[in-house]
Amino acid sequence: MRMLGMIAAAMLHLALLHGGAAQAQVLPDGPVLAAADMRGGQDLSGEWTYSIDPYRDGMAGFHGGAAGTGHRRYDDVDVEAARRADPLALYEYDMDRAPRATLPSSWLTHAPEMRHYQGLVWYQRRFDVAPGEGERQFLRFGAVNYAAEVWLNGQFLGRHEGGFTPFAFEVTGLLRAEGNRLVLGVDSIRDDADVPPPVTDWETYGGITRPVSLIEVPQTYVDDAWLRLTNDGTIAFDIALDGPQSAGATVDLAIRGLGVELRLRADDAGRLAGEIAAPANLQLWQPGKPQLYDVSVRIGDDIWRDRVGFRTIATRGSQVLLNGQPVFLRGISLHEEELGDSPARNMTPQAARALLAIVKDDLNGNFVRLAHYPHGDAMVRAADELGLLVWSEIPVYWRIAWEDTDVLAHARTMLAENILRDRNRASIVIWSVGNETPVSEARNAFMAQLVADTRSLDPQRLVSAALLTERDDSGERPMMRLVDPLAEHLDVLAVNTYNGWYGPDRPADVPRIGWDVPLGRPLVFSELGAGAQPGLFAGEGVEPIKFTEEYQAAYYRNTLEMAEGIPTLAGLSPWILKDFRSPRRQLPDVQDGWNRKGLIGPLGERKLAFAVLADWYAERRGD
Ligand code: GCB
Hints:
Blueprint: H1 14-17, H2 21-26, E1 42-43, E2 46-52, H3 79-85, E3 100-103, E4 105-106, E5 120-127, E6 136-141, E7 144-145, E8 147-152, E9 155-161, E10 167-170, E11 180-187, E12 207-208, E13 212-217, E14 221-229, E15 234-242, E16 250-255, E17 260-265, E18 271-277, E19 293-299, E20 302-308, E21 313-316, E22 319-322, E23 325-326, E24 329-334, H4 349-362, E25 367-370, H5 377-386, E26 389-393, H6 405-422, E27 428-435, H7 441-457, E28 462-467, E29 470-472, E30 479-481, E31 493-497, E32 514-516, E33 523-528, H8 549-564, E34 569-572, E35 580-581, E36 594-595, H9 608-619
Parallel strand pairs: 24-25, 24-34, 25-26, 26-27, 27-28, 28-31, 30-32, 31-33, 33-34
Antiparallel strand pairs: 1-13, 2-3, 2-5, 4-12, 5-11, 6-10, 6-13, 7-12, 8-9, 8-11, 14-15, 15-18, 16-17, 16-19, 19-20, 21-22, 22-23, 29-30, 35-36
The structure holds (2S,3S,4S,5R)-3,4,5-trihydroxy-6-oxo-oxane-2-carboxylic acid (GCB).
């Protein structure tokens, strides 16, 4: 079937995508470069040099003035040659001869002395390039944790804050054929005005943790494109061009395998939007058959590509509906930490698939909560391909400076960066705006703004947040109550529950605990969990103590029994698939810097509780 091109002003969705004052304020500066990972370009992974700078001498002098020449790691200078040329030249760094490290990776594994380093680290990468005549170039960073200042050939390009979302700078005209010098000052220190705040329950993993690439495009190119199936049965699209030929440009949109070939015309701002009836031969994306289609958008010489699945997500009463059918979310939570005894947040596509395959094939899952911040492109792509539903979250976690308008602006930008990167991923069904944030007026307003932003950037997906509950012991049995005013803004109610681990209950007390939650909407246990050191057993006839595998398994059996008594429960994502590094967790010989609530250990060792959950999910398989 071939569809004729159509684009009608009446169908414009631009108001949602780019219009409106509230919207403009949250959109990140600079290019979107949607599906940047599909554009190829020059991969700047590999060998970089680095130099620690705990006193930030490269940023400022010790009396507070400008940094001195001898400390400015970003200057475009061959330090060794400069020293030889001038006997009085004084340099106290040399990025060309500094220690080497292979990126992307957190710096924790660069050298033993970097394991607990927090602060500023300078990174340099030299590279040659043959820029195409008349082409534009962008440097794109998948993520730098936490803040990055970037220089190319001695010229400052800009700063980015927030360790989990991509950013890019245009560098057209700034490159030379040989020996480009790309320098980043990467600072892992966060303060109370950051998102997340300094205190969390995971390892910080400072550094350049996701790929860096040099992307080349024609003068006018497709900066953003978003396709999705709507609940009305149409495929809707929004496209944004950038460059001198954008206004009124002719654009070709194609979906291979569906016979969709549209010739469209951009408006004066280089944007276009519209919708077509979904072709009859469309295979819906679903966990049991994660069908993806090759999509392309062409303007002149630029071809934007992505692989997109089409599905709907909605709620009806207390059910979550995927493609109109109720689905129970058989999930598990994940941090962005690869298997191994010395992880470095080096989440390659293989590492991501290894974790997700355990969820899908062994745990009988269909859902992952990617906690507590946006995970890398590799992870969400793998979820699309393997067929796992995804909860995607921003690190609005615990104690945020709710009253600070700059913090709100920052959280909104991070949210927008995450949504703009991932709107084409069928796997993502829930955007979460935060985790365990204590109720207050300022917090309620902050979170409500994030919910509103989410809905305006993506009206189709479900919005949630992991909420705190209150415990009431005044009656016959303990009651957990959800009394958070944010609940009324959410499509999916989500709570974390740790009765039987934190608090007074034994695992056996848990099934009688009651839940008092607003009805008529799906409830998800976004967390439940207990720790166990892999291989630590209480043994026969002994009451298991905390951190034994038997205790964790009993906790799971009892908590699942409690869950069975909650009529609106639509799914769960227990805490957590794999033990993960956390500096809060220092019980010797048991934790040693690891949060032990994994169902598997760091190397993939399965604990007893793994089978408890896998069996429970097997009984609830529906896809
Ligand atoms: C929570 C947090 C999570 C922690 C977990 C724990 O409620 O959301 O980040 O790691 O509890 O292990 O205590």
